Amino acid sequence: MLQIGEFSRVCQVSVKTLHHYDKIGLLIPAEVDCFTGYRYYKTEQIDDMNYIQRLKRYGFSLDEIQHLLSISDKKELVNALQQQMEQLKRKKQEMDMIVNELQTHISIFERTSDIMTYQKGYTIEIKNSPAMNVLVNRAMMGVDEFGKYYSTLFERVPKEHVTPTGLNGARYYDKEFDRQSSDIEVFIGIREKDKADVVVESCECAMTVHHGGYSTLSEAYGAVVTWIAEHDYEIAGAPFDLYIKTQFDSLAPEEWETEVYFPIRRK
C-alpha cells in the first residue's frame, strides 16, 4: 500500500488532485485510516491513475473519463476513443489553419501597415440568390453541431427518394448570434419541388464569397453589412450561407469556398 504522498509522487499528480478525484468518485483510495484520515492506494491503482491521466491528455473531461471507466464493452470504448481522435484531428486542422492565417496577416500588415486589411479584401455584389427546393432542419443549435443536424437531412434522401443538387447551406434567424445556441436552419437542395420542405424563392441580395475556414466567416459578414450601410440599402431577411467547396470535396480548409447572402432592399 502507498500513502497518498507516495502515490502522488509516483503518478506525478498533486495530492489536491487526488483529493478531488476521491471526492467525485473518479479514483477512490483503497483504504482510509478511520483515525487519522490518511488515504492509502494499492500499487494496482497506479495503472488506473496513468490511464486517467492519458485520457485527460486526449482531451476528455473528468465527467467523460468517469463514463469511459464504466464502459465494459470493447466496441463502445473503441468508438468513443475514435470519435475523440477525429475531434482532435479537426482541432489540429483548425489550429494549422489559424497559424497560416496569422502568418498571412502579419505579411500583409508588414506590407500595407493596415492591421484591418483582411476584411477589406471582399468584393461585394448585388446578386439574385438561387431559387432552391430544400429539405430543412431548424433548431436552436451551436455551430459545432451542424454535422448532427445535417446527418438527419442526408438520412432522409434515400428514404424519401429525392435527388440532392449539392447546394447546401445554413440560414441564421436570430438577431443576436450565440455560437453555442442560435436559431439556425441547415438545409440541403433537392431537385424534386413537390417533395421539398420549403421552396426558397430567389431574392435580391448583397453577396460575397469567403475563402477559407468557417471560423473567419464573421469577416465576410462584417464586410457585407458595412457595404449595405454605405450604399443606402437595408437588410430585408435572414442571411444565409451556401457551401460551394468544402472538406467533402477533399480540399484543405484554405480552399473552402462559401457564398454569403444578405437579402436587401432600398431604404
Report on this model:
The chain is of the alpha+beta class. It is 40% helix and 26% strand. The protein has seven helices and twelve strands. It is elongated, with a radius of gyration of 26 Å. It starts with a strand and ends with a strand. The mean pLDDT is 90.
| Structure summary, number of beta strands | 12
Order of secondary-structure elements: EHHEEHHHEEHEEEEHEEE
Low-confidence segments, ≥5 residues, pLDDT <50? none
Strand coverage percent: 25-35%
**Cα distance spanning the termini:** 79 Å
Q: Can I get a quick summary?
A:
This protein is an alpha+beta fold.
Which key terms come to mind for this protein?
alpha+beta, 7 helices, three-stranded antiparallel beta sheet, elongated, 267 residues
Secondary-structure map:
Blueprint: E1 2-3, H1 4-11, H2 15-24, E2 31-32, E3 39-41, H3 45-57, H4 62-70, H5 74-112, E4 125-128, E5 132-141, H6 146-160, E6 164-172, E7 182-190, E8 198-200, E9 204-211, H7 217-230, E10 233-235, E11 240-245, E12 257-266
Antiparallel strand pairs: 1-3, 2-3, 4-9, 5-7, 5-8, 6-7, 6-11, 9-12, 10-12, 11-12
